[in-house]
Each structure stands twice: as C-alpha cells, then as structure tokens.
C-alpha cells in the first residue's frame, strides 16, 4: 500500500517547515513490494562473538569483516558496536539494528575508513530504536537499494534510514539516502521521543529529518542538505542552536528549508543559530485549528534567495497559523520587515559593495567586531562593546563601550589599533617577499601568495583609513593605558596608572568580580589624572579592574586598547 502521512513539510526551497498541512499533501513512506538480501553467518568480530540470532549482550563487539546479520538489543542490555571500517547489512525483511525499550546501544567506528550500516529491504530501517542509542565516530548509515525517486514515486523499496521512538544522540555520522519519497530520519510518531544531533552530515529523503508526533528534536550542529522538500520538518518541538542547512533544489518550490506545523501536536520551532541557504527559510502548514509558534532569535540567513516565509497550504484552516512577527535576531540578505518583532534593533551592514541586515543586539554586535564593516543602526536599542567597525547611529539608541552615540553621529572604536595592526602586517609581508626573492625560482609560488596577502592588507588599510577620517584629517585614538596597579585598602581599592596626555581626553574604569562581567564604574575627564580610589567595596572580596583611555571628537569618541588587568582583595 502507498503510505502517506500528515507530513508538515516545506520543501527544500525552504530550509524548514513548520507543519500544519492537509493529511495527503506529501508522500512520506514506502510503497509496496520487497527486496531481500543474501545472508552470511560467518563470524566476523573480535572478542565476544555475535550470536547467530543477532541478540547482543552487554559487551563490546568489533567487526573484522563485512557482516550480513540483523542485530537486536534487548531490555536491560548495554552494548557497544564498533564497525571498525566494515559494513553491517540486514538479513531479509528485517531492520538492520533494533534496540528494544530498555536497551542501550553505542555505535562507533575506531578505524580511519569508517564503516557502514546498510538496509536493503522494503519498509525496514538501518536503525530502529525504542531504547537508547548513541551514534559517533563518523559511522555511515544508508539504504543502498532505496527506490523512492520523488514524493509520488516510491518504487518497491523505500523507508527511513533511522527510526527513533526512544532517546537517540547523533554525535558524528554520515547519513545519506538517494530517495525522495520517504523521509531519511524520523523522530517520534507514536511515542515520546528525543533526538539530539551535535554533528555529522545528513543528506537526502523527502525530508532530511522529520520530527513527528510526540517528538522533541535538538540540533546543535551538523550539515543538512535536501533537494526535495525540507532539511528539517517539524510537527512537535524542535530547537536549532547551530548547524548548516541547505535546500539545493533549483526548480520552483514553495516549501521551506525548515517546515513547521501542528497536527495534534505543539508545532513549536525555535532557531537560535545556524546558517541557512535556499529559496525560502520557513514553510508553514496546518491540518487543524491548533496554532504553532516560531521564535527566530539568531542565525545567518543571508543565503535565502526569496521570501523568508512561505505557506505550503492554502486551506481554510491555515489561517489559524500565524508567523507574522517571530524574528528577534539574525543576519539577512533582505530585511524581513513584516516578520520582525516590534521595537527590535536593526542595522544595515555594508562592507565594500556588500550590504546585509543585522537584527537584534547579538547580530549587530557580531557585525560591529569586523573592522571592514560600516554598521548603521536604524532602529532599536543596542549596547556594543569591543567594536572595530565604523558605527553610525541613524535613528536608534546606541552605546559603544558605555558611551552614548547621538543620532546622526559616527564613531570608529579602536581605529588606531586597526590601522597600526595593518601597517605592521604590511611591513612584515614586504620583508617576507624580499627574503623569498633571494631563494630563486623555488619560492615563486610563495611569493605569489605573499603578494596576494600584501595587496589585501593594503586595501584593508586604505579602507580603514578612509573610515576613520574626519574631513581629510586622520583620527588617532589614544594609546593603551600602561602600568595599572590595584592596592587593597579598608573596603576600598586604589588604582594607579601612567597618565597620558597625547590624543587623550580621559579614562573609563571597568570592574568585575570573579565569574562576572566587566561594567564601567567611573569616568575620569582629565587626561593628567593617573589614580582613583574605588570605595564602598565588600570586605574579603577580590575585584578585578581595567582602564581604557578615550578621546572626544565632534562625531563621538575614539578608544584606546584596554589596560592589562589588576586585582585587589579588599581588607
């Protein structure tokens, strides 16, 4: 029979799908027919032998040759399987590895070639888990006889590579499927299930990873590629903290790299990071009046080529699912104005001929750390620290290293440090080129590389000097504060440093306790002052201090480098 499910999927054109769609909208599982594999019962492990019936005991098994056998981990058993670069294939019409409820299995590979778990039977998985499974060591997991070609053509041998109805952690694996009819990995569907992915490569299936009914999916890393529907399809609860997600489909596709929806489920999708490339980021679907939710807090979405959000269903019920204002962070090729939360900070980031848009303080801070950028804050409130970029306040509430930047003003923090670093780099490259030239023709390739780096550094220097110029005068920031010392007193700490008058207006003093963050505690407006006493401190507590010089200019302030840290344990 042709199996179809309420697959909340937005195709690969969208990296993800928030599932809320009609039950018959997408095919997801195997067609009729069967394929069998020839069996070999030769013993192929070191140490404890795998029994002929494939039931593992609580020990470690290491393959020494390819093996055709279906393995089972029973309740109460804790086993380890080391593929050792070999291939494990199922016996006819069985899952390759089955872990029962209460069973625990670790799958790894200690070799450099990396082994494979394969399944060649219709509607059977390489790994079928109802217990606890950990996969690591770069293990390969596939269905080499998969016949599913597209959502409408399953052929006679199609299914998931991995089925998880228990608890599974994938630390490092290479999971691939050539088909486009079944999802490649399914989490949940009939029981509470937890799948955590921290690394590996995952490619194929109608959806690369499908988080189904009752499933909880956490992605902390890995590379996910799909060319049929979605890299990640979520029905219940998914959190993406990091990773690379790609939809490589070139044809017209209104699905998303990530799909999200709700059936009888939560339909909760949270994106805290990652890099996403495809036509659309997010596909939304519904098959009921349950409303799902999407929270997009951070990530790189500059690879999205069309609208950020698309809907895979135009059904009447789809109106119950809204993702109008779900974005509080991220970096974008085009500003997703309609989806931004109210009052969220926004900035235009230019670097040469490139323009992107940063949303939220975290992404604006990241952009501000690149000395090649000009970051123009257009809306919202941000407090930036350690910035190297040119910062322009074009309509927001902006602080740079604790100092307000007025609307219409521009500051270039760390300008002199950036320029000095590039000047030193250029001088060093020139010396290296001269030295390499004396080595004759053998150094030709090295000279070419050095010259390329030199040209790049010279271009960066020119850009940095242009960014920090006011009129035609190069602005020079103060030097680093030197000789900072802290002397403990009675509920106080006295700081002393070497005062400097060149290019200096005054000093900012920062303080923290162990495990805390530095905060500005004092501004000194005299360049000649070289001491200050911090009173009212807690007896017996250790405080850490650092000092930074600043120079006031008409468009804001320039900053010197932080001093070394001084500490004092208060009496």
From TrEMBL:
InterPro entries: FN3_dom, FN3_sf, Ig-like_fold. Residues 412-474 form a coiled coil. Residues 477-571 form the Fibronectin type-III domain. The keyword Repeat does not apply. Residues 1-27 form the signal peptide. Keywords: Coiled coil, Signal. The keyword Signal applies. This is Fibronectin type III domain-containing protein. It comes from Eubacterium pyruvativorans.
């Amino acid at each position: 029979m042709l199996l179809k499910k309420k697959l909340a999927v937005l195709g690969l054109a969208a990296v993800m799908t928030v599932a809320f769609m009609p039950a018959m909208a997408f095919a997801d599982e195997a067609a009729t027919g069967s394929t069998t594999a020839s069996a070999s019962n030769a013993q192929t492990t070191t140490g404890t032998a795998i029994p002929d019936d494939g039931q593992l005991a609580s020990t470690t098994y290491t393959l020494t040759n390819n093996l055709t056998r279906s393995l089972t981990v029973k309740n109460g058993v804790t086993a380890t399987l080391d593929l050792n670069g070999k291939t494990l294939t199922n016996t006819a019409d069985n899952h390759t590895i089955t872990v029962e409820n209460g069973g625990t299995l670790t799958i790894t590979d200690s070799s450099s070639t990396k082994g494979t778990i394969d399944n060649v039977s219709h509607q059977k998985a390489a790994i079928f888990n109802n217990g606890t499974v950990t996969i690591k060591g770069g293990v390969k997991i596939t269905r080499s006889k998969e016949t599913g070609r597209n959502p409408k053509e399953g052929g006679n041998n199609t299914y998931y590579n991995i089925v998880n109805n228990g608890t599974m952690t994938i630390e490092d694996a290479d999971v691939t499927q050539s088909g486009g009819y079944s999802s490649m990995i399914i989490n949940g569907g009939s029981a509470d299930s937890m799948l955590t992915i921290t690394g590996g490569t995952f490619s194929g299936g109608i959806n690369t990873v499908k988080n189904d009914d009752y499933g909880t999916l956490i992605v902390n890393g890995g590379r996910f590629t799909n060319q049929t529907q979605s890299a990640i399809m979520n029905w219940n609860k998914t959190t993406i903290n990091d990773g690379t997600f790609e939809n490589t489909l070139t044809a017209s596709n209104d699905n998303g790299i990530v799909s999200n929806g709700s059936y009888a489920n939560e339909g909760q999708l949270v994106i805290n990071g990652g890099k996403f490339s495809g036509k659309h980021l997010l596909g939304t679907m519904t098959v009921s009046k349950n409303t799902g939710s999407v929270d997009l807090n951070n990530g790189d979405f500059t690879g999205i080529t069309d609208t950020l959000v698309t809907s895979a269903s135009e059904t009447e019920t789809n109106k119950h699912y809204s993702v109008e204002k779900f974005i509080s962070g991220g970096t974008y090729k085009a500003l997703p104005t309609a989806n931004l939360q109210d009052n969220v900070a926004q900035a235009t980031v230019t670097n040469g001929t490139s323009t992107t848009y940063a949303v939220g303080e975290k992404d604006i801070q990241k952009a501000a750390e690149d000395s090649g950028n000009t970051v123009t804050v257009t809306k919202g409130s941000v407090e930036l620290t350690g910035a190297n970029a040119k910062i322009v306040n074009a309509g927001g509430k902006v602080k740079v290293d604790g100092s307000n930047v007025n609307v219409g003003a521009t500051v270039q923090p760390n300008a002199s440090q950036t320029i000095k670093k590039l000047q030193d780099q250029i001088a060093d490259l020139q010396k290296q080129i001269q030295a390499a030239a004396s080595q004759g023709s053998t150094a030709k390739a090295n000279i070419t590389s050095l010259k390329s780096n030199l040209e790049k550094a010279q271009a960066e220097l020119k850009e940095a000097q242009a960014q920090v110029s006011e009129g035609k005068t190069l602005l020079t920031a103060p030097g680093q504060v030197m000789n900072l010392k802290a002397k403990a007193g009675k509920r106080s700490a006295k700081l002393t440093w070497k005062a400097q008058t060149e290019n200096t207006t005054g000093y900012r003093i920062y303080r923290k306790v162990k495990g805390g963050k530095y905060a500005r505690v004092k501004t000194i407006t005299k360049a000649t002052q070289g001491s200050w006493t911090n009173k009212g401190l807690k007896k017996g507590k250790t405080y850490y201090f650092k000092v930074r010089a600043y120079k006031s200019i008409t468009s804001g302030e320039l900053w010197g480098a932080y001093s070394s840290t001084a500490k004092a344990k208060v009496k």
